[in-house]
Amino acid sequence: MQTLFTNCTIFTGPGEPLLHDRYLVTSGSTITALGTTADLPDLQDAKIIDCSGKLLMPGLINGHNHCAMTLFRGLADDLDLSTWLHHHIFPAEKAHVSREMTYWCTRLAAAEMILSGTTCVADAYFFSGESARALRDCGMRAVVGHGVVDFPAPSVPDPKKNIETVARFIDEWQDIDPLITPAVFAHAPYTCSPATLRKAKALADDRNVRFFTHLAESRNEPEMIIGMQDTSPLRHLAGLDLLDSNSVLIHAVWLDDRDLEILAESGAHIVTCPQSNLKLASGIARIPEMIARGITVGVGTDGCASNNGLDMFREMDVLAKLHKLSTLDATALPAVDALRAATSANAELLGLSDLGRLQVGNKADLILIDLQIPRLTPFYNTDLLVYAAGGHDVHSTMINGRMVMENRKILSFDLEETVARVQQIAALVDGVITRPA
Ligand SMILES: [Zn+2]
User: What mean pLDDT do residues 19-28 have?
Assistant: First the structure.
């Protein structure tokens, strides 16, 4: 199946100029041609999409999400991380996370992401086989990290079996479906002992999959870390030999100067979640300094219980503005760096190098933005994608060469069924739909 996008204004990726009067061809799952309209090929059987008045650009990548947490959006707001996590989220998860909940609530997340131009997500949760199945069924590309903690979790009641459960998940999904890449997600050094962290990283390295962990999210984390000796959270991980180019650290808010040096030398990657950090008052990560040191920095929404949305356009906007304010320097994090974080940098740190840019040979993960709207008129340059556009301006979404959303209608699955199923599940969660208005 070929698709021909004609009359395009194309943004091929961060740092590249806007191109006008272009065409792009996808064949199967891949971008196979890109050129000027004057040289338009004659493709008899291709589906033709006229892109007049629209911008064709790479699909956005969400570098960190707990997809199934759509169920807990709005359940507990305006709380610090520790209170939010230990008194609200962990108990709600203990009571309500199941196979069925994970499947349907992950599908709801997929709907929100597809409608707002996200074509790939790094998910981190439990019952990861269900998450992988839900994302695949929705036509969404994903790196799915199976959670590891040292206490009983809904999908792993016996924590002694946490590593073998993840190993089984990897074996079930590795190289099985082109959309799904399994991974290891060790929740945090305050929920995983040093021994567990080492085993999780060894498993990731052995199976050649990514190792993710939350790190240094809140200022009081050092008091909670299991087995940490008079050092920093990052040096705790470095001391366990966990930092290399296969490691992705989520948040990394509280790093000192020495931590930044060690991080840069290690080759480990960072995913920052600025809106989650703002809402939980966790702190402000030293992102401009990390970028200046050559560290690959991606961006993610985090789970939508701490955000509370999955719109990566909004996340880019906040990322760029937050660091201007925190440094009192309007040049601290330009729009292009936010775009890079949400596209090519996220692709690189997830190990999916054929994503994040529109070029021949890359995967056909792309979106169309409506430029015929007041907010994006006139469209002088791509900075507007960060400072003006929103997920609701996405007209169509293609993932792996398949149109999953066209003219704001999801084509790859039944959205109404998904909403209805999540509403049924939510009816069992105290306070979610029974809370008085
Ligand atoms: Zn998270």
Answer: 98
Q: What is the pTM of this model?
A: 0.97
Q: Is the dihedral of CA 428, 144, 213, 316 positive or negative?
A: negative
Alpha carbon of 413 to ligand 1 centroid (Å): 27
Bridge partners (DSSP) of residue 122 are: 143
C-beta of residue 190 within 8 angstroms of C-beta of residue 226: yes
Three-class DSSP category at 154: coil
Residue 292 has, within 13 A of its CA and on its CB side, a CA count of 10
Q: Which two tokens stand for residue 83?
A: 């209170």
Environment class of 208 (CB within 10 Å of its CB; exposed 0-12, middle 13-18, buried 19+): exposed
- The closest alpha carbon to 365, from 393, 395, 401, 312, belongs to 401
Say how many Å lie between the CA of residue 85 and the centre of ligand 1: 11
Q: Let me know: does 31 contact 24? Beta carbons within 8 Å.
A: yes
pLDDT at residue number 213: 98
**Separation between Cα atoms, residue 155 and residue 131, nearest integer Å:** 12
Contact (Cβ atoms closer than 8 angstroms) between residue 136 and residue 176:
no
Instruction: List the helix and strand counts (H, then E) for the chain.
Output: 16, 17
Distance 51 CA to ligand 1 centre (A): 36
Placement of tokens 């203990």 in the chain:
94
Structural tokens at position 134? 């839900």
What's the CA-to-centroid distance between 66 and ligand 1, angstroms?
6
Cβ atoms of 68 and 131 within 8 Å: the answer is yes
| CA–CA distance, 169 with 130 (Å, rounded to integer) | 10
Express each pLDDT in 310-356 by its tens digit: 999 999 999 999 999 999 999 999 999 999 999 999 999 999 999 99
CA atoms within 13 A on the CB side of 147: 29
215 near 245, Cβ under 8 Å?
no
User: 65 C-alpha vs ligand 1 centroid, how far in Å?
Assistant: 6
* 303 CA → ligand 1 middle, Å: 6
pLDDT surpasses 50 at 432: no
Q: Give 71's contacts (C-beta < 8 A, 6+ positions apart).
A: 96, 101, 105, 422, 425, 426, 429, 432
CA of 165 from ligand 1 middle (Å) equals 20
Q: Are 122 and 141 in contact (CB under 8 A)?
A: no
| Residue 85 DSSP code | I
Q: What separation in Å is there between the alpha carbon of 373 and the centre of ligand 1?
A: 34
d(CA 70, CA 113): 11
